[in-house]
Amino acid sequence: MLLNSLGTGSVCVFGTETGWHANGNVAAKPTAKTSVMTPRQKTFRRIVTGHDVNGKAVIISDGPPTHTKLVGGPGGPTFFEVWHTLETPALIHAQPDEPAENGLVLPPPKRGTRIRVIEFPPAPHPLMHRTRTVDYGIVLEGEITLVLDDVETTIQAGDIVIQNGTNHAWANRSGKVCRMAFMLIDGEFTNEIAQPK
């Protein structure tokens, strides 16, 4: 496997079924291994609120996330894309509609945010990566190991990681599925850490 550093602050992986592209998109070869969901995965509800014509608070939609992607074939993580915003401050519409996006995009839009849930099956960490974001990662169920350059720590349900643009990976060594929620906020590296050493 060849790791290639990208100008966007993320890492591109080549030589696998999946690769991160410079624009943050995930490319998967269209094989029989690529699917949207597998039977073992349970889903969750995404409830979106808004306002009716009288300005009263209402539920706009209530159902599972509409964008789910199994990355890398069987044994790979499943991404449940929940929502993203295009700017900060976010525009709050009466009848919010999810912005369209092609494929799976790792970082949030420039000046935007992204929330996703990732289901990690038991597996060694697939790749070290770094993004220009502040990420809040919350373990919903199971446990997983956060791998950094020279240190690692195991986190469990209820633990929260504040990921500040560091090079990292996730290794599920528990033997059970781990599910995490991630809130990604677009950011900029300061000069002292703009180029990894």
Percentage of residues assigned to helices: under 10%
Corresponding CATH architecture: Sandwich
How many structural domains in the coordinates? Answer: 1
Q: What is the overall shape?
A: globular
Q: Give the strand order, joined by hyphens, for the main sheet.
A: 7-8-10-16-11-14
Strand tally is 16
The whole-number mean of residue pLDDT values reads 81
CATH names the topology as Jelly Rolls
Low-confidence stretches: 1-39
Number of helices: 0
What is the terminal-to-terminal distance? Answer: 21 Å
Strand percentage, roughly?
A: 35-45%
> Structural class, from secondary structure content?
mainly beta
CATH H-level superfamily title: Jelly Rolls
How is the main sheet built? 6 strands, antiparallel
Q: What CATH first level would be assigned?
A: Mainly Beta
Rg, rounded, reads 17 Å
Following the backbone from N to C, one meets helices and strands in this order, namely EEEEEEEEEEEEEEEE
SSE diagram, text form:
Layout: E1 2-5, E2 11-14, E3 18-20, E4 25-28, E5 46-51, E6 57-63, E7 67-70, E8 78-85, E9 104-105, E10 113-120, E11 133-141, E12 143-147, E13 152-156, E14 160-164, E15 169-171, E16 178-186
Antiparallel strand pairs: 1-2, 3-4, 4-9, 5-6, 7-8, 8-10, 10-16, 11-14, 11-16, 12-13, 12-15
Structure description:
With 197 residues, this protein is mostly beta strands. It has one domain: Jelly Rolls (Sandwich), CATH 2.60.120.10. It has no helices and 16 strands. It has a 6-stranded antiparallel sheet, with no helix packed on it. The chain has a 3-stranded antiparallel sheet with strand order 3-4-9, with no helix packed on it. Strand 1 and strand 2 (11-14) form a beta hairpin. The model is unreliable at 1-39 (pLDDT under 50).
